[in-house]
Amino acid sequence: MGNGNAYFIDALGRAGLRFTAVRHETASVAAADAYYRAGGGLAVATTTYGAGFTNAATSLAEAAQARIPLVLVVGDAPTAGPRPWDIDQAAFARSIGAETLVVTAADAAEQTTRAVERALAGRVPVVLAIPYNLASAPATDTAPLRPLALPTPIRADNLDTDAAAAALAAAKRPFILAGRGAWLAGAADALGRLADLTGAVTASTALGRGLFARSEYDLGVTGGFGQEEAMHLVGTADVVLVVGAGLNQFTLQFGALLTPGTVVIRIDDEERAHPAVTQFVRGDARLSVEAIAARIERLGSAPSGWRESLAGLADGSLRARPAGEVELPDGLLDPRRVATRLAELLPEDRVVVSDGGHFIGWANMYWPVASPNRMMMVGTAFQTIGLGFPSAVGAARALPDSTLVVTTGDGGGLMALADLDSVIRTAGRAIIVVWNDAVYGAEVHLYGRLGLDQTAMRIEQADFAALGRALGARGSVIRSLGDLAEFEQWLAADGTGTFVLDCRVSSTIVAPYQEEVYAFNTRTK
After folding, report:
1. Which residues pair with 263 in a beta bridge?
2. Adjacency order of strands within the sheet including 201-204
3. Which residues neighbour 331 within 8 Å (Cβ) at sequence distance 6 or greater?
4. What residues does 99 pair with on adjacent strands?
5. Structure confidence by residue, pLDDT tens digits, 384-427
6. What pLDDT sits at residue 338?
7. Alpha helix (H) ranges present in 57-157?
8. Which residues contact 144 (CB under 8 A, 6 or more apart)?
9. Which of 186, 295, 390, 446 is the most buried (most CB within 10 A)?
10. Residue/partner pairs of 476-484 with CB below 8 Å, 24 or more apart
11. CA–CA gap between residue 395 and residue 383 (Å, rounded)
């Protein structure tokens, strides 16, 4: 709240709408972004003008890159012209991928309706600006709001879905890869049915985790978060169906995941060229998958039988992870061992919010989630850190009855420290896991290994447990698995509030995905 949006926030309260306060402007947008990702609905954030608006730039850029429909209501310069401290906010927003609409007294309702339409239809953040001198002015467009005009889902061409069905029906080793787009389109049930009809092995992108109900035939996440043998198995598929996934370099292991010559069919509502794709189906994910499944049923082909023949799939060994070392030479904890134990302890009904940093491998590799909206990787689209605590506020609002689990590093955690307070104030039950290794791990494990000076890559040890206690949470420093005893007692007593686990882990253990990044960077030099 600031003097550019004070009247707007006051009006929210008078209208009976809930306002959630955060401590930093970037947290306002990050929390709204996560609220949408967790299934809470349209994301709405607000900041004042000028410095308040520019403070929100990083999380606004993340929302733009991640294709999050979001409306950011901001103060703006007066209609008479900019003051010395005003900037061209529309140009600033445009540079990071967000359109700006400016309201007047005569069109406030219509501009607001347009902002919501453009956000939802384009899957983009839209800035709605209120000039300073109009903030308390009465609106003159008082007619009833018109209905939103939103596009209908695209129905794919029958020739395209029939061709995809024929390829999948004839496949001996079919594989289905689904991403967040499939979840947002409501395609999970249709994909499960198609997998059963074809006998396909399934997997998801990092943002689509938990999409497939039949986990016994699912490989988990592809790319660097995947189990090594499982990723080799993907390379043996003869037909691959990709649904609602971007096929970025991390998903495809920098091009190593799929074997050249594999038939790759991609379903998406936007046609984007990709060298691995051999057949493209433009259409809504759910409608397209349903059409393909119906066609396969009419063809009467039997399932391939591939998934039932694979050793280690149904029994889960192809999803098993290294449990980590009991002792390491530096005396610190193996993060894999901590992740394994926490996977046993964390409540099943949880929503996990992951900040960015080297540590992202541990939660994504070791902690299963019930559905894609219960694992939010924030910051990955814009390659930023420090959005974990702010985003957790939105997830807590969207899923208030679930246990909130925040996984963050010490670097991102310190960057976002102001909104550790917001998490503690907002969440009914939260667990914060800090992978505290006193380094910026992604930099150490790439540039440090390349011989660069590591002085700036290292962080003085911070006591996150004490910081949490100072703000009203409970907290323990975890130097051994035995130090989890107080946390386990809290869980057993159905404890409420926030518990901070300050896990002192070794920086010598490198996440597999980071090894891929290192190998790619050294290979291309």
Report:
1. 239
2. 218-221, 201-204, 174-178, 239-243, 263-268, 279-282
3. none
4. 126
5. 999 999 999 999 999 999 999 999 999 999 999 999 999 999 99
6. 98
7. 57-65, 89-95, 108-122
8. none
9. 390
10. 476/500, 476/501, 476/502, 477/502, 477/504, 478/333, 478/338, 478/502, 478/503, 478/504, 479/332, 479/333, 479/504, 480/333, 481/333, 481/337, 481/338, 481/341, 484/341, 484/345
11. 20
The 10s digit of each residue's pLDDT in 447-456 is 999 999 999 9
Q: What is the pLDDT of residue 68?
A: 96
- At 392, phi and psi to the nearest 5? -60, -30
DSSP 268: E
C-alpha torsion angle, residues 467, 360, 60, 45 (rounded to 10): -60
Q: How far apart are CA 125 and CA 76, in angstroms?
A: 17
Give the chain's end-to-end CA distance (angstroms, integer).
Answer: 48
Q: Return the number of other C-beta atoms located less than 10 Å from residue 494's C-beta.
A: 8
Average pLDDT over residues 54-71: 97
Report the C-alpha gap between 320 and 343 in whole angstroms: 13
What letter represents residue 330's amino acid? D
Amino acid at 260: P
**For residue 40, what are its two tokens?**
């809470």
Backbone angles phi, psi at 96, to 5 degrees: -110, 15
Kindly report the length of the chain.
Answer: 525
